[in-house]
Amino acid sequence: MPGATDEGGEMRTRKILIAAAALALCAGFTMASLAIASERANTIVTIHGQEGDYHGTIFSKRGGCLGDRIVKVFKQKGDHQNPKRDTVIGTDTSERSGDHGVWSIGNSGFKHGDFYAKVRRNDACRGNYSKTIHR
Description:
The chain is an alpha+beta fold and 135 residues long. The chain folds into two domains: 1-39; 44-134, Immunoglobulin-like (Sandwich). 24% of the residues lie in helices and 35% in strands. It contains one helix and ten strands. The longest helix has 32 residues, at 7-38. It is elongated. The mean pLDDT is 87.
């Protein structure tokens, strides 16, 4: 009959359009998250100290990468850095101080050996390791 509507066909078309829109939205979020991840800012972390009291700085062009960063200090067991094998002797969360971040684990009790710091990555910032220092 002319002018009659096919409710089943309209419903199917509507479901297909909704599914296509949802798929496009998911693809957009995936692409955006990949773009953000690839644009993490470089980070430099340093370590200093003596007599078991280790501290350091964090540098980055992105100000948001300076504070609230988790820093772990490791006692190196072998000839090179290996955080899976090396011993964590302290952890701190950095604070922003002007154009850099600062961290300190206080007195760890570990006075002799090779030590390095690791700053964890986050959504906006790359992680990195300091140079190893010998005490």
